[in-house]
Design the sequence.
């Protein structure tokens, strides 16, 4: 081979090999630092695709395991409620048997009857109030809802609309109307007023009515005015909570305009709730139409079935339907077919006479049987969920193992390969240095 100084073939060869060795060492280093065999698709596209699906399945199985745990917690709450009702029924049967005896007068039976009726009402209260995250477990809830028809044009609450700043309102579980005693909530209502207060304040007051009794809660909304520190911008919303009444209002930017309009009045001349020609700049309306009536709630009913996601897929086998039975006084005692007299049908004089008490013994006995059927069903679902949880744990373990086989790095083997590549890099650097020295030998021919 000719000796020249323009092209250094040996150096080019050494550089090419050094670049290749350095690239391999860098890839090996990235695998060691990440702990995975497949850093990018070019390492193993098929394994990466399968591994990604397995990883998604593993995470989904973890969430499904959480769902199973929550389902078991929900059923445990239901079982606890039924255990209490069982104790009540045992006491009610004791009272019935005692009242059936001829050695008591009607006066003593009256005392026993009072307790019997109160215990029946307690069964209904427990069935109504036992829930998990708002889901009824033992019977229909006793809550109330707003009659949104009042918000229509001409309705009693027509001023509580978006143009006035009110996007909507919600009723919480601990609302004031849950204390209604006459069983009818449609005679109840709430009224919204926004008035000038002292020292330039603007006060929003909500007055709630239950059975003719009033409860009032007020909050300072001055800062919600257009130039206030908490003014609501266009497209934004805020929530005003009246927790003593169990009400919350969602308000928009027009609410700030309403507060400013009230604030600009003199001696209450522009108060919301008293101004029949209210104009907040967004609309003109009669603000005296500010009362909303209540109606029976249809949202807190006992569901026919509750569906839990206990798998990672979207098939029927990945879901479990749980059916819960009502255990209130209207169903307990009616029998498996629901055709016999229930606790409720015993009326107000359930055990006030010996004959009534003797009939009540039979009804309460059936009620105990009805409760045990409902409780046994809950126990069955709990056992099934336990096995579902065990299967999820096993599946998750095996899926994680399969994903590990595809993607996880064999650190010992890769460290051995990295050491070899390191040596090649060091050797390449040394040889490139030697190759770069070769043209220096030609200088001797010029001396």
Sequence:
């Amino acid at each position: 081979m000719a000796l020249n100084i323009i092209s250094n073939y040996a150096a080019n060869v050494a550089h090419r090999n050094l670049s290749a060795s350095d690239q391999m060492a860098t890839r090996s280093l990235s695998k060691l630092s990440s702990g995975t065999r497949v850093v990018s698709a070019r390492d193993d596209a098929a394994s990466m695709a399968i591994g990604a699906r397995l990883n998604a399945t593993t995470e989904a199985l973890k969430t499904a395991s959480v769902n199973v745990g929550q389902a078991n917690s929900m059923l445990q709450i239901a079982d606890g409620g039924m255990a209490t009702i069982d104790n009540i029924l045992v006491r009610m049967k004791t009272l019935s048997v005692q009242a059936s005896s001829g050695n008591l007068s009607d006066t003593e039976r009256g005392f026993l009857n009072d307790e019997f009726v109160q215990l029946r009402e307690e069964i209904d209260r427990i069935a109504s109030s036992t829930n998990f995250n708002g889901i009824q477990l033992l019977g229909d809830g006793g809550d109330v809802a707003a009659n949104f028809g009042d918000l229509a044009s001409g309705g009693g609450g027509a001023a509580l609309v978006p143009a006035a700043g009110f996007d909507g309102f919600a009723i919480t579980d601990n609302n004031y109307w849950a204390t209604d005693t006459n069983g009818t909530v449609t005679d109840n209502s709430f009224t919204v007023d926004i008035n000038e207060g002292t020292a330039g304040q603007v006060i929003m007051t909500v007055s709630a009515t239950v059975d003719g009794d009033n409860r009032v809660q007020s909050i300072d909304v001055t800062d919600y005015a257009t130039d206030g520190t908490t003014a609501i911008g266009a497209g934004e919303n805020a929530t005003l909570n009246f927790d003593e009444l169990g009400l919350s209002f969602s308000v928009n930017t027009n609410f700030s305009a309403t507060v400013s309009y009230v604030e600009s009045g003199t001696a209450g001349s522009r108060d919301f709730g008293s101004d029949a020609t209210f104009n907040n700049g967004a609309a003109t309306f009669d603000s005296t139409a500010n009362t909303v009536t209540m109606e029976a709630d249809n949202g807190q009913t006992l569901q026919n079935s509750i569906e839990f996601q206990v798998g990672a897929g979207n098939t029927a086998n990945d879901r479990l339907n749980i059916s819960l039975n009502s255990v209130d006084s209207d169903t307990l005692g009616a029998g498996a077919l629901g055709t016999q007299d229930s606790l409720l049908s015993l009326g107000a004089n359930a055990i006030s006479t010996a004959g009534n008490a003797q009939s009540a013994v039979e009804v309460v006995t059936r009620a105990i049987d009805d409760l045990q059927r409902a409780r046994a069903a809950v126990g069955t679902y709990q056992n099934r969920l336990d096995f579902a949880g065990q299967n999820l744990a096993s599946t998750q373990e095996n899926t994680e193992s399969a994903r590990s086989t595809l993607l996880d790095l064999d650190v010992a083997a890769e460290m051995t390969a990295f050491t070899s590549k390191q040596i090649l890099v060091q050797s390449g650097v040394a040889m490139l240095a030697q190759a770069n020295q070769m043209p220096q030998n030609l200088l001797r021919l010029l001396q």
Observations:
- The CA atoms of residues 117 and 348 lie 7 Å apart.
- The chain has two domains: 58-141+303-399, 144-296.
